[in-house]
Design brief:
about 20% strand, alpha/beta, 10 strands, 10 helices, about 290 residues, 8-stranded mixed sheet, globular
């Protein structure tokens, strides 16, 4: 029996994007063949790594990151339009990806960024893969924007957090979209042995820098950025889904982690697996 082909749409959502890895693993295990990928922000990163066969290396790396490792990867810069330059992270990604052009990838790939000069979304469907990813994940005010052919490019999620439109003309069996702004309540993902080994003092460091820990009277700058961008992306996601509904929607709850919890790869990847299995079980019942 021929494997069903899918166009996979991977949404933006910061560290929640690790869930895309778990979704991809479960879809492949179930026999689906991914023939096309469209992604914004972390969706563009995970999709690009998959398209150039580097996702396993990336997964191996992020599973080893603890909170202190994440903190040491941040190269702060206050003079280039963003708080973080991103060169340390992209130096590691460059070693995994190498010099790859989008048009030479074995599957169709689209990375979506936002041009803040012309106020429109930009689709990267050819050219340097790493540059396209870099533009798509540049969270406004956090990561420095990318200047490209007169454009100033930031996170694709600023206008299109779930870029379904690039897949509409694909000759595949299904369009499967992974939304990282799901609203359904979810039980906290159980910690793996690795996550339980993290030291509390390192956790406290990242909580102070990036995440919403306990409720407090004053929000940090990162709290405000996180909440604002999440609110904006959730609204745009609803709008995009209304105009371009996918055949299948796999929702990842926003409660899985916060935008900057990049030290929680193991838990979030598992959340992606669980969400994908939930869809696959429903599909099997109706087949």
């Amino acid at each position: 029996m021929k494997s069903p082909t899918i166009s996979l749409v991977l949404g933006s959502g910061g560290a929640r994007g690790y869930a895309h890895i778990g979704v991809i693993e479960e879809l492949e295990k179930a026999g689906y063949r991914i023939a096309s990928i469209s992604g914004a922000s972390m969706g563009a990163l995970i999709g690009g790594l998959y398209a150039c066969d580097a996702l396993d290396r990336y997964k191996e790396w992020v599973l080893e990151l603890d909170a202190l490792d994440v903190a040491t990867l941040l190269d702060f810069s206050f003079a280039a339009g963003g708080l973080i330059e991103g060169e340390k992270v992209f130096s590691r990604l460059a070693k995994m990806i190498g010099e790859r052009r989008i048009e030479d990838l074995p599957i169709k790939y689209t990375a979506v960024a936002t041009d803040i000069i012309r106020k429109k979304e930009v689709w990267f469907q050819q050219g340097d893969l790493l540059e396209a990813i870099r533009a798509s994940i540049a969270i406004p005010s956090v990561f420095t924007p990318v200047r490209h052919h007169g454009m100033v490019l930031v996170d694709g999620g600023a206008l299109n957090p779930l870029p379904i439109a690039p897949t509409q003309s694909d000759m595949t069996d299904l369009i499967v979209a992974v939304n990282l702004y799901g609203e359904f309540p979810t039980e906290p993902v159980r910690s793996t042995p690795k996550s339980r080994q993290r030291k509390e003092r390192i956790e406290a460091l990242v909580q102070e820098l990036f995440r919403k820990s306990e409720p407090r009277s004053h929000l940090s700058m990162f709290d405000v950025l996180d909440k604002t961008f999440d609110t904006m992306q959730d609204a745009f996601t609803r709008y995009r889904i209304a105009g371009y509904p996918p055949d299948v929607m796999i929702d990842i709850s926003m409660n899985v982690c916060s935008t900057f919890d990049f030290h929680k790869a193991d838990e979030v990847i598992e959340a992606g697996r669980i969400a994908a299995r939930r869809y696959l079980q429903k599909a099997e019942k109706h087949s």
